[in-house]
UniProtKB/TrEMBL annotation:
Belongs to the YbaB/EbfC family. Binds to DNA and alters its conformation. May be involved in regulation of gene expression, nucleoid organization and DNA protection. Pfam families: YbaB_DNA_bd (PF02575). This is Nucleoid-associated protein H8S23_01420. The lineage of its organism: Bacteria, Bacillati, Bacillota, Clostridia, Eubacteriales. The keyword Cytoplasm applies. HAMAP family: DNA_YbaB_EbfC.
Length: 115
């Protein structure tokens, strides 16, 4: 005896899927704008340098404490500044990836289907 499945069982509702996809696109655009405007502040050298970067990877502010400025050791200041920039880039990238993954994790296409 064959088992009978409800009519439409196993079929993909392409219209509903497209609506879900379009909503996700709108949500991604909105989130991208929000992430680009968001500012991230990091420190280096035990707080001797503070750097603020936005989500477009643009440095907004750099604050350097006077004790970090030693005319005899400019290389240390250069290293601290490079470390702060690298840390800010890492923080921005991780934040963006995490937020985008959260947004897109609920959108699963059935096997073999592409938009």
């Amino acid at each position: 005896m064959k088992a009978r499945l409800p009519q439409g069982y196993g079929k993909v509702d392409r219209n509903a899927l497209m609506q879900q996809y379009q909503q996700m696109q709108q949500d991604m655009e909105s989130l991208t704008a929000e992430l680009e405007a968001r500012e991230h502040t990091v420190t280096a050298g035990g707080g001797q340098i503070s750097l603020t970067m936005n989500g477009k990877y643009e440095v907004q502010r750099v604050e350097i404490k006077p004790e970090a400025v030693d005319p005899e050791d400019v290389e240390l200041l250069e290293d601290l500044l490079a470390a702060a920039v690298n840390e800010a880039v890492r923080v921005v990238k991780e934040t963006q990836e995490s937020e985008m993954n959260t947004l897109t994790s609920g959108f699963n296409l059935p096997a073999g289907l592409s938009l």
